[in-house]
Amino acid sequence: MLLNLLEPNYALPCRQTMTIRLREKQTRMKDNIKSDITNDINTSVSLTSDIGTSLANEAYLSVTANYINAD
Question: Which residues of the chain have pLDDT under 50?
Answer without folding.
Answer: none
